[in-house]
Amino acid sequence: MDKKFAILADIHANLDALEAVVEDARSKSVTDFICVGDVVGYNASPNECVDLVRQLDCFTVRGNHDHYCAYDESLDDFHPMAASVVAWTRHQLAGDRSQWLRELPLHAFHQGMTLVHSTLDMPERWGYVFDSIEAEAHFCYQNTQICFHGHTHVPVIFEKHGGIVERYDPQNIHIGLGRKYFINTGSIGQPRDNDNRASYCIYDTAQREIQFHRVAYDIEATQAKIRAAGLPERLAQRIAVGR
Ligand code: ZN
């Protein structure tokens, strides 16, 4: 059966951005939602974002923020500002939400595609894939034609063809025979490519096409929630500039 998947990543507890993306995806007749991790962290609505993702019946893999917010592990490797939000989020997560995050798989084979937050090259180490060399290490482990990921908050396409890995800026692509794709959908809750609109992808299996979409949302409302929660001011500022 043909499907239209919305692929979400790096929601980071930004409910206004997530709601805007869900509405946009529904207006484009999406049938299924998928999330490649980091539902929580950075912004002020972790419980609400976990609840909405669960309501969407959204198949989700675990991101590094999901991991550290749900497991009581040392935050020594985190930037101090990120660590302070992880500590805040641990206190906020109520009910069974932390357990839900804990039980998410680190990577998954789902509906014919592979899903991972960072890279299949030692996913538990949360490596960042910015360039073709890092993508090449990942492709050694990718057994499906398409794999979606997040983590860098920068949307990008890596394509492997005839042993060569190429990097492309986000654009609508047609899935070609004999090619493999490792696609970063960009971030919903904290984009870092100088565009402050929420970023996500749609994968249309009938058209064999992947599209990138950007959605404007009420940034001021999200900033007000960050300030009301007493989270660092820098977090409110960065979502306005998309960095
Ligand atoms: Zn993230």
Descriptive report:
By secondary structure, the chain is of the alpha/beta class. The protein is 31% helix and 23% strand. The protein contains 8 helices and 12 strands. The protein has helices at residues 15-27, 46-55, 64-70, 80-92, 97-102, 132-139, 219-228, 233-241, and strands spanning 4-8, 32-35, 59-60, 107-110, 113-116, 146-149, 156-161, 164-168, 173-174, 180-184, 198-204, 209-215. Strand 4 (107-110) and strand 5 form a beta hairpin. Helix 3 (64-70) packs across helix 4 and helix 7 (219-228) runs antiparallel to helix 8 (233-241). The longest helix is centred in the first third of the chain and has 13 residues, at 15-27. The protein is globular and about 50 Å long. The N and C termini lie far apart (39 Å). The structure holds zinc ion (ZN). Zinc ion binds next to loops.
Strand order of the largest sheet: 3-2-1-11-12-9
Shape: globular
- Uncertain ranges: none
How many strands, which pairing sense, and closed or not: the largest β-sheet?
A: 6 strands, mixed
Query: In whole angstroms, how far apart are the ends?
Result: 39 Å
Can you count the beta strands? 12
